[in-house]
Amino acid sequence: MHAFDTKGHKAIEKRAYDLVRSRPGGQTILRELIDSNVLSDDMPSPHSHSPDLSFERQFAQDRQMYHFMADDRSVIRASKYATIESRKEQLLLSSVEGCLKAVYCFFREMVRNPVGESQAGRGIYVLMHIIADSYSTEHATRIGDNTGQLVTIKGWQLSRLWWPPNAKSKNEDNTMCLLHATKGTGDHAWQDGKGTLTPNAEMAAHAIADMIVMTYDAQKAPDRADELIGKYIIKYFRPYNTQVTKKGFAFPEYGKVVPYSYEEYYNDPNNGFAFEFDRFPQYYFVATAGGYYTNEARLGSAGIEFGGYLTPRAADNSRTFLSRISLAYGIAANSIPVAEERYGFPETVRMQAFLIGSTRIPILNASLEPRVGLAAYPFHYDTYFTVPWGADLVWNIGSDWVFPFTAATRTLRFSMGYRHDRTLISVRHFLHIGFGFNSWQGRVSN
């Protein structure tokens, strides 16, 4: 999924730096943001294209605000309305608040702790990416004047195998009204035939340039951060046909107000805003149960498993491919009952250590986690090492909850998978399920 393709994101970011330099004191602004670790020291080398390689956020439906998009459930609900315009309005109404809240909170966190936010996978380049995405005709529709007010926000066609016909209705420019097409024309619409930026891409560059200057201003006067980001959201993310009030964007027809300031939400230490927007895992713990197929019988098994994730790291750096993939290590213990009477409980306890790779599967909204490890039966009289391998499909169930006295949240974790292990006790194939919880990284400290 690319709002603008990689070359487009790079060109827009470079243009934004040129716009900042053209302003009085612009070079000083850029230098001070480099010195304060907001911008990378290799600036003007672009980084805002890199968040597209963060696969957890790319494919997870509850993380589409990283690309200024709607989740598939919102698209389905909006598609039930009678007219194209009412579908667009309903999709905007249901999706814009999550996107604006992410922009607000990430900006506030960046001003407070730019290094920590970057290491947590957010930071200024993620914000640049969100802003540029919002000007792509594949991600959002804006009115065609100099205000660029938002008409609707779109979902991602690749997230489902089937969509109702209303969700795939077309705009005049041949983009879909409610969806980012799998192969959309808007992906490459960042330059014209002469090699210059299109109007939408140019507006995106100006919006990013203003965000850079605003970051500098907020660092100089942190007590103005809420005021600055609120004015910015009004200027660049105002929904069409809304009234700007002290409380937010008012939708008179629907009697709803969408805030442009989330200061109370951001400052409340109990909600942990990053939990709502992030899916970079820390560790998991599950109880497992399943069945082995042996040469003699089909038998049950039970055990426990713990895993810790090593990556991904900062989302603003694409120098190494491995930093874009969730890699994990784990340990497990389980009992493998067998048909032979000579094997009792201690002898059938298997201990193992393993490595996991994890990638999202968009249509299933799940993660595929292949693994390989080293196992042994420490209480067996004839112990030797084996190399079990297999894969799991993993789902995160329900809403996040904050664990007391920690800076992380949990969600329920359900997995189902296959293992192969050629062992002394004739076990070959194993199907299993796991149930427990995942822990996710939280907001960064001051």
From TrEMBL:
<protein>
    <submittedName>
        <fullName>Uncharacterized protein</fullName>
    </submittedName>
</protein>
